[in-house]
Write a structure and sequence with these properties.
The structure holds three protein chains of three kinds. Helix content of chain A is 74%, strand content 0%. Chain A is built from 13 helices and no strands. In chain B, helix 19 runs antiparallel to helix 20. In chain B, the strands form six sheets. Chain B has a five-stranded mixed beta sheet. In chain B, strands 4-5-7-6 form a four-stranded antiparallel beta sheet, with helices on one face. Classes of the chains: A mainly alpha, B alpha+beta, C alpha/beta. Chains in contact: A-B, A-C. Chains A and C meet through helix 9 and helix 10 of A and helix 2 and helix 7 of C.
Chain lengths: 320, 591, 351
């Protein structure tokens, strides 16, 4: 196991190298815009562009830029400065991380709290009205665009622009360390909006898994033992049905930690997603590179954690 | 420049800055189509909806916190680097350029850090400015602002670590090209309150007006010099470390998210024309434009610093007009390439202008809320606007009818050698525009006009950025018509309005902004003469004449003079800075 | 004396998208206390569904059930879910074909055994564990204390089935239903498992219903044999009668398809031709007629009932051939003739 983790970690590092190199290449082969020109103003006199290019380090060959960039990361954990607003990228990412983590963790809790019971009830009461209603609702929630859902939630429930003033609206995000009450209040709507499609997806996934598992021989055995149905489903069936969900959950968390762009935008939550989005819009390579690397890191680490967790969840799985 | 609002616009920020276009066509605020279609019915080029609350005096009171919101975040709050409307808002509240303007009069510069209007030598090559002797830096520096601080500001404008977008265009100071951030031989400070600029050419009259840009705001050498050695300079990356001489100081700054301004205790109101009503200014950026606009309209106290999206603008116009303000911004025009057939022929250009349905452009852009039909190039923000005929223009027949006039167009077709009134040459007209709304509509409008004159046309809708980099701004691409172009002047002088878009000397092979590729020696010379005039009235007349020559030469179809709409909360007193086209932080008040 | 289990006219139907499946179509049999009953038939004959229904396990599949399942005289079909639950695993236990898939893969076997004990008996965890270890030993798991903490995948197939048996018997049920307990196992292991079941049946005085498709398997363990076909009992007799004097052509087919020690090696095994009928659309008349070599036109219309032989009331058969013909045919077949030849002879004789 230890050896396995070491080997996987080495792969993670290699993968991050590849991701960073690919991002660099994409940026240079398919430029969205020339950052130097973006900055050079209206009558961009070529000497000014050349000077800005030099200032931003864009006048060096790509491999030299890449080398310097990677050197900065490895030696100083320095991700460079934003072309757009001169901010150190590392600082930007770390200062935005708590917001993204808050959003992600809360949404995960919400979607599990909704998705799991709905999935179980739908699977047990298969073809019932409750099942059909919740699966229909789930389909709706999966297809609803998050941005639209966010606006809808705000126009209905936000205490500034809502029809009924219930929850804190957009732009009220307050760090947990500053005021836990406001932190919680300001995140209620975003959590539900972000969680909606996930809850629906998880409910459907769990329902399908559970229906599958309920047909397994060991469920028949559990019943033949005389176990109460609650225990048959709650323990024996759920234990198996939840395992694949853990895999998906791990990856979803990894992806969301890389930023939930639309939710962060609608609710003006200063997270990584917005940073990444603005980086792309502004051809801001250091920001793009930094957010991509962090996003990739979250995903591969989540993947690793999931794989390791699997060994604990499924005793048949052994890594060596 | 001043810039676009709204997200996609940010992309263009500086590059295409020029690009009002950016602002307009990429849906920045006001522009897009839906908002206007209904509101435009009442439009006629004479009466423009101005909205309420733009007066400088609205019974504002001192004190309180001014709350601001915006979709866009800041880019560079370093006065040497700021080149964006949103950045200007902050910089003008915390730093003092040599000259400024009252919010309701963007056309007339008044002394800010300067003690009075400058002295310009007869040859227009030497400009002397005296600064106020009693302006102090904020704590912890606490000392008086001196002429050396202004000198250092100019040195850093040419420092590679402080990339300034306009210094090389407007500050032709002797020795500046070689200074690289070091001393500039053409700037002298004979005493603590006097600064003398030596220019390389007769440019003083224009130079003085460009001193309203933040690049002239003093920067104390002992604070900034060490920061400026870093790349990027800390003066920009951590603006809370700046020294401030404006009414406010930057207390906290989270890039892209929030900024808090508090009073500068060392600021003396007797030295300043800014009333600085609010005690504190809290500005949260990064909002979704739709949400922020609605929050603003539903709130008592918010000011939204960038333009609301079209649907919200429409609602505001219908139900909350008192919370809406509109001010002129720049102009849109369809550039006609004067170097390649068919529009290397002046009469064919005039015919194209005559055939264009300019009223349709206005509707496509959003109607009255976004502007008026243009009849010449200098817009209402320019001092020479009235001298250039104001709304009616110079009376050229090919610009008379805003809906287009085929009879007039045919007259010019004949004059160009097409007796049937239809083009029979074999040039295929390539029209390239932005593919984001309302670009495609504009392409169709210009195409319809040209087709009615028998031109064969090809239209191409591409991303705005590509339109500039690969087509309209790339001279070798030989694009015949660029109908989604636009221009916002950097300051209120006609030089800033007309020089780059229409002067042959401004043509560069790539990233060109003279989209007509117009290189008319007479016009070039007239511009040079006008920019050298120091007497304001004579300048205005000279530039009005340049505008007349341009309009007659028809290097472009003037489409509309754009306006910019802004929204505010119900009780906050919002004062619009007509120069920067945004709420003025130092004049607006929470109550 | 009341039989331990008596099934009367049991019918089980499932509604599916394709139609109604008549999985069990009027089955009756009895199991005496401490005795072993073999239920033989191909897959789809309803032998497992009958047992599962007796256990109340078809309730979870929304089966439509009529008839009676009397356990010590009480009709289990009328028992509440809770009553059934307290009977399952306690009074009646069941083991299944594939021990690997029948054990929960994520739980240690010890835990699964303890759970089985504690759901029915008020024992502490420690007591339950001791009992589980005792039973693991009883079924022949070496080093049961250590294996208590093993996962199912860590056992061989035979050992897993022993675990299943331990789990089924841990509450000393009155009746053990073993549904194809050896089918998934190696041949050598099969015999050990059957020996184990037989031994425990004696030691614990448990009645056994052994469900199998293999007559060879029941031969060793059971006292009475029920042969099922397409949801019905076609023959019901004492073990010795089934092997020595079978009456139903289907039973003959089953007997001829198993290798026997008393026949020469090179004699071919004769499989039953054709396939079992669809339970959604059963044939008219005798269910077996499409596969029966001795079918007469009348058999396609008349539905044979299960009737006792005049000479032996304990031997019941559902066949429309008359008794003499059946006895003659069996004699022919038992002498090694293929059914075609035997049939030809009978038919020629104009019966």
């Amino acid at each position: 196991m230890g050896q396995y983790i070491i080997r996987r970690t080495l792969w993670v590092i290699l993968l991050l190298f590849v991701v960073s190199a690919v991002t660099f290449l994409i940026f240079y082969t398919l430029p969205s815009a020339d950052p130097a020109v973006l900055r050079a103003g209206k009558s961009p006199d070529p000497t000014l562009i050349a000077q800005i290019r030099h200032t931003l380090g864009l006048d060096k060959p790509v491999y030299v830029q890449y080398y310097k960039y990677m050197k900065g990361i490895i030696l100083h954990f320095d991700f460079g400065y934003s072309f757009q607003d001169s901010q150190p990228v590392r600082k930007e990412i770390f200062s935005r991380l708590p917001a993204t983590i808050s959003l992600t963790v809360g949404a995960v809790v919400v979607w599990l709290m909704i998705g799991i019971p709905v999935g179980i009830i739908s699977a047990i009461k298969r073809r019932s009205v409750a099942d059909r209603a919740s699966m229909g609702g789930a389909l709706l929630a999966i297809s609803a665009p998050v941005y639209w859902l966010g606006l809808l939630a705000l126009y209905l429930f936000a205490n500034d622009i809502g029809l009924v003033h219930i929850f804190d609206g957009s732009g009220t995000y307050t760090p947990l360390s500053q005021d836990p009450g406001r932190w919680f209040g300001s995140l209620i709507l975003p959590w539900f909006v972000l969680a909606a499609s996930f809850a629906a997806f998880y409910a459907r996934l769990l329902r399908a898994n559970l229906i599958d598992v309920m047909g397994e021989d060991y469920i028949r055995t559990a019943r033949a033992k005389g176990l109460p149905e609650r225990r048959v489903i709650g323990r024996h069936a759920m234990r198996s049905a939840i395992t694949p969900i853990v895999t998906v959950l791990g990856l979803d968390i990894g992806i969301l930690l890389g930023g939930a762009i639309l939710t962060e935008d609608v609710f003006n939550i200063p997270g990584i997603g917005r940073l990444a989005y603005e980086g792309i819009i502004n051809a801001d390579l250091p920001v793009i590179q930094g957010t991509v690397l962090f996003g990739a890191l979250f995903i591969v680490v989540a993947n690793l954690v999931v794989d390791i967790a699997y060994a604990f969840l499924d005793p048949r799985v052994r890594y060596s | 420049m001043r810039i676009p609002r709204a997200l996609p616009a940010a992309l263009l920020v500086s590059a295409t800055a020029l690009a009002v276009a950016a602002c307009g066509s990429s849906g920045g605020g006001s522009s897009s189509s839906t908002g206007g279609s209904s509101t435009s019915s009442s439009s006629s080029s004479g009466t423009t909806f101005k909205g309420a609350n733009i007066a400088v005096s609205q019974g504002q009171k001192k004190g309180g916190t001014l709350n601001l919101t915006s979709a866009e975040g800041w880019e560079h709050l370093d006065p040497g680097q700021g080149y964006f409307q949103i950045d200007y808002n902050v910089i003008y509240a915390v730093q003092r350029p040599l000259y400024g303007n009252m919010p309701d009069n963007g056309k007339k510069e008044i002394p800010d850090l300067a003690a009075g209007m400058p002295t310009i030598s007869k040859d227009g090559k030497t400009v002397t400015v005296h600064i106020k002797p009693n302006v102090k830096w904020s704590p912890p520096l606490n000392r008086t602002v001196t002429s050396d601080d202004v000198k250092y500001a100019f040195e850093r404008d040419f420092n590679p670590n402080v990339p300034n977008a306009y210094a090389s265009s407007y500050y032709p100071i002797v020795g500046s090209d070689k200074s690289k951030g070091g001393p500039i031989s053409g700037i002298q400070t004979p005493n603590k309150t006097t600064i003398v600029f030596h220019l390389t050419r007769n440019f003083g009259g224009t130079f003085v007006q460009s001193l309203t840009l933040p690049g002239s705001a003093a920067v104390p050498r002992e604070v900034a010099a060490s920061m400026d050695k870093k790349n990027p300079t800390v003066y920009d990356s951590d603006p809370t470390k700046q020294a401030f001489d404006g009414p406010y100081m930057i207390q906290s700054y989270n890039a892209g998210r929030s900024i808090t301004l508090v009073r500068n205790p060392n600021w003396d109101s007797s030295t300043d024309f800014r009333p600085a009503y609010a005690d504190k200014i809290v500005w949260k950026a990064g909002a979704d434009a739709n949400v922020a606009a609605r929050q603003t309209l539903d709130s008592p106290d918010l000011l939204m610093m960038d333009g609301p999206p079209a649907p919200v603008l429409k609602t505001a116009y219908q139900t909350k007009r008192s919370q809406l303000s509109v001010a002129p911004l720049g102009d849109y025009y369809a550039a006609l390439n004067t170097t390649v057939p068919p529009f290397n022929n002046v009469n064919l250009r005039r015919a194209a202008v005559a055939a264009a349905d300019r009223q349709a452009y206005l509707l496509a852009r959003g109607g009255t809320l976004v502007g008026t039909v243009a009849t010449h190039f200098l817009g209402p923000t320019d001092a020479a606007f009235n001298a250039a005929g104001g709304n009616n223009g110079f009376g050229f027949d090919f610009l008379k009818n805003p809906n287009g006039d085929l009879t007039v167009a045919k007259k010019y077709m004949k004059a160009a050698g097409y007796p049937s009134g239809k083009y029979t040459g074999n040039a295929n007209v390539l029209i390239v525009g932005s593919n984001s709304d309302p670009g495609p509509k504009e392409l169709q409008i210009v195409q319809a006009g040209l087709n009615s004159l028998g031109f064969k046309t090809t239209i191409k809708a591409v991303p705005q950025q590509t339109m500039y980099s690969k087509f309209c701004g790339y001279v070798k691409a030989h694009v015949n018509v660029c109908p989604t172009a636009g221009w916002i002047p950097d300051f209120s002088d006609a030089y800033a309005y007309l020089y780059v878009p229409f002067n042959g000397k401004a043509i560069i092979p790539v990233n060109n902004s003279n989209w007509s590729v117009l290189n008319d020696p007479k016009i070039n010379a007239a511009m040079d003469q006008a920019s050298a005039i120091t007497d304001p009235q004579k300048r205005i007349q000279a530039w009005a004449n340049v505008d007349k020559m341009l309009t007659s030469t028809a290097p472009a179809i003037p489409e509309i003079w754009a306006t910019n709409a802004l929204v505010k909360g119900s009780t906050v007193k919002g004062v619009l800075d007509t120069w920067n086209d945004d709420w003025d932080l130092s004049f607006s008040s929470p109550q | 004396m009341t039989p331990l289990l008596e099934i009367r006219d049991l019918e089980v139907r499932f509604t599916t998208d394709d139609g109604i499946v008549r999985a069990v179509d009027g089955v009756s049999y009895t199991v005496e206390s401490g005795k072993a009953l073999g239920v033989v038939g191909e897959s789809g004959s309803g032998k497992s569904v009958t047992a599962l229904t007796a256990m109340g396990l078809t309730r979870f599949q929304q089966a439509e059930v009529t008839g009676e399942v009397l356990f010590e005289g009480n009709n289990l079909l009328h028992a509440t879910d809770d009553e059934m639950r307290s009977i399952r695993g306690n009074e009646i236990a069941m083991i299944f074909q594939d021990p690997l898939s029948s054990l929960h893969p994520f739980y240690k076997i010890g835990r699964q055994l303890v759970e089985a004990v504690r759901v029915h008996q008020p024992l502490t965890k420690a007591q339950a564990k001791e009992r589980a270890i005792e039973f693991l030993g009883l079924v022949g798991i070496p080093d049961p204390r250590r294996r208590f903490d093993s996962y199912p995948h860590e056992f061989s197939g035979g050992m897993r089935q022993r675990v299943m048996i331990a789990m089924a018997l841990i509450n000393e049920p009155r009746l053990l239903i073993a549904d194809e307990p050896t089918t998934a196992l190696d041949v050598t292991v099969q015999a050990q498992i059957l020996d184990l079941i037989a031994r425990l049946q004696n030691e614990l005085n448990t009645a056994v219903v052994l469900i199998t498709h293999d007559l060879g398997v029941v031969a060793e363990v059971t006292d009475t044999i029920v042969v099922m076909y397409a949801g019905r009992v076609v023959e019901h007799a004492d073990k010795y009668d089934i092997f020595a004097a079978p009456e139903h052509p289907y039973t003959w087919g089953l007997l001829q398809s198993i290798p026997r020690l008393d026949r020469s090696r090179d004699e071919p095994l004769v499989p039953i031709s054709g396939r079992p009928p669809s339970l959604i659309s059963l044939p008219t008349g005798c269910n077996f007629h499409p596969r029966c070599p001795y079918v007469r036109p009348r058999h396609r219309e008349v539905d044979p009932g299960l009737e006792a032989l005049p000479e032996d009331p304990a031997h019941k058969v559902a066949c429309l051939l008359d008794g003499d013909t059946r006895k003659r045919l069996w004699r022919e077949l038992a002498s090694g003739k293929p059914p075609e030849e035997a049939r030809a002879e009978i038919v020629e004789k104009g019966v």
